[in-house]
Amino acid sequence: MHKIFLSFALLFLSLLSFGQKAATDKKLESQIKQLIQGFQGDVGIYVHHLKKNKEVNIQGDSIFPTASIVKIPILVGIFDKIEKGELQLDQQLLYRASQRYGGSGLMQFFKDSTQVDLKTLVALMLSYSDNVTSIWNQKLAGGGVAINKLMSELQLTQTRVNSQTEGRKPDWERYGWGQTTPKEMADLVTLIRQGKVVSQKSSDQMYRFMGNMFYDERGLSQIPSTVKTASKTGSLDDVRNEVILVNAPKGDYVFSIFTKNNVDKSWGKTNEAEALTRKLSKLLWDYYQ
Questions:
Q1: pLDDT, tens only, 138-148
Q2: What is the pTM of this model?
Q3: Residue 245's pLDDT is what?
Q4: Are 59 and 42 a contacting pair, CB within 8 Å?
Q5: In the chain, beta strands by DSSP E
Q6: What structural domains and CATH numbers belong to the chain?
């Protein structure tokens, strides 16, 4: 009992320390505001240089649809179950064709009765944003209610799974699969980087999974390939999101850009929101290095 109390106390203190107010970087804020001027849609941006503890928050506390970035909270749910001994990364699972779901990903093309392990499900969910494995992982994690409880424990009050989650139908109708704010998602990735989600070991493993992105045409394309990053994108017709933590030579920084109600609903590199994400990423890399 004493050990359990001590672990909760340490978690509370670490979160309290994490929550120390960062100073606003006025110069960078001005440059970002100029960059997003004229964007045809709603945009929220949060940037935090961890070493300097300076931030920029432009609508960073507004709620946006997560699109596929909901897969980060699902990842946390999976590792919570692993930590408790209820799941193992090497455990074998059976894919059935009845699980097939469209959109992004590879598992929808697997043959019926293919045997896979949990590690493959997690890797496909993160790297290829695979929808089949993401829905599967959400169920394995105990569903949206269990995942949302974990988000609450991390003091993330707006980050929630909505799809197939009891009591969240109105939120699902408004935001889709999940919802969050740019700041909360940047904070979640930062907590993972700092080893404060589930456990140090689980955080390290999650961080490794988030460092292998197939979809690297947006913000990642502006960061040298030799620099370690952890990231996730999310996309719908009128939504383009990305969160990236950069292990930069002069100190880690994290940024997230979320957009919604975008006029440009095209798919491809010329999409206005995707182009804006690349410009923001380049601005931040040049500014900090």
A1: 999 999 999 99
A2: 0.91
A3: 98
A4: yes
A5: 23-24, 42-49, 54-58, 64-65, 92-95, 114-117, 160-161, 178-180, 229-236, 239-246, 253-260
A6: 20-288 (3.40.710.10)
